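Need a sequence for this fold. Nothing fancy.
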């Protein structure tokens, strides 16, 4: 006997309608017929696992009303958000993030990787606020914290120390934004070194620009292989990959597959911020995941930002 039976449901990998049996909060059986204390009629609807949002900035969500003039560019979004976050408090971050998490859960999301800014401007305030939120909402959603420095890392000893403190304090992954650093390669050195030191995965904001030149994707893949981190590195945005020639594109996709690097596309932000300086033809800045999926690369489509200068909707 089951606590709950979801009747007449569609489930991926099974033909026809089935019953899903839940016991003690866990799916315990999927059969043609099951009996249970409570019966929920799916009426032919799809029953699936919870959605996973692999890249979400909870700490700077819901601040759109605090900005002054913006021109819709990445540079302005980074600059103006850095100005605003200096005044963030733990309570402010917690309240805004909790509202965003609530909407995620209602939409079916049960796992979130939150990218959390840790640097000399905001210190550990965002990390502490989201660590508390993750504990408070653990009954309905798993929140994984990936700490990173948005404004640059290579020339900030304090930022490096704060990231170490966060990783010692329980952060689950380390990220980065090399394109926003004065020395992108040095930031990669620091991020990979921290990942090895703390035995955590890497998840980078990478190659977020409107040019085929200066991609770091190949460098990230080579470092991943050299450090034996296959399957533990992810990259987000990678809009520059959508600008390269077909032969080079195929070469890079193969390298990504060989390195076991996962790729996350963030269409809401990428579409909003790219192509601002172009009259015609306006680029979309969205990576085509089909060639990567065909090579077995782990891919995802994620939210990135909600109601801020990077994504003013959501």
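Here you go.
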């Amino acid at each position: 006997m089951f606590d709950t039976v979801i009747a007449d449901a569609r489930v991926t990998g099974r033909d026809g309608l089935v019953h899903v049996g839940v016991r003690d909060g866990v799916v315990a059986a999927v059969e043609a017929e099951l009996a249970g204390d409570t019966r929920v009629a799916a009426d032919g609807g799809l029953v699936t696992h919870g959605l996973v949002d692999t890249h979400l900035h909870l700490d700077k969500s819901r601040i759109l009303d605090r900005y002054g003039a913006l021109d819709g560019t990445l540079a302005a979004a980074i600059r103006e958000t850095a100005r605003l976050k200096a005044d963030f408090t733990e309570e402010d971050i917690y309240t805004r993030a909790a509202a965003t998490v609530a909407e995620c859960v209602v939409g079916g999301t049960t796992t979130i990787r939150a990218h959390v800014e840790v640097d000399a401007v905001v210190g550990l305030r965002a990390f502490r606020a989201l660590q508390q939120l993750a504990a408070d909402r653990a009954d309905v959603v798993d929140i994984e914290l990936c700490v990173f420095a948005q404004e640059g890392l290579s020339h900030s000893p304090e930022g490096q120390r704060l990231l170490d403190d966060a990783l010692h304090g329980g952060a689950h992954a380390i990220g980065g934004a090399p394109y926003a650093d004065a020395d992108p390669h040095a930031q990669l050195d620091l991020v990979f070194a921290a990942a090895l030191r703390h035995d955590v995965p890497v998840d980078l904001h990478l190659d977020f620009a409107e040019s085929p030149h200066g991609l770091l994707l190949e460098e990230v893949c080579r470092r991943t292989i050299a450090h034996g981190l296959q399957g533990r590195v992810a990259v987000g945005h990678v809009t520059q990959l959508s600008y390269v020639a077909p032969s080079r594109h195929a070469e890079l996709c193969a390298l990504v597959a060989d390195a076991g690097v996962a790729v996350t596309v963030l269409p809401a932000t990428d579409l909003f911020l790219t192509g601002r300086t172009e009259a015609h033809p306006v680029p979309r800045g969205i990576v085509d995941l089909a060639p990567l999926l065909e090579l077995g690369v782990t891919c995802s489509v994620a939210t990135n930002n909600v109601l801020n200068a990077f994504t003013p909707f959501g």
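For context: The radius of gyration is 21 Å.
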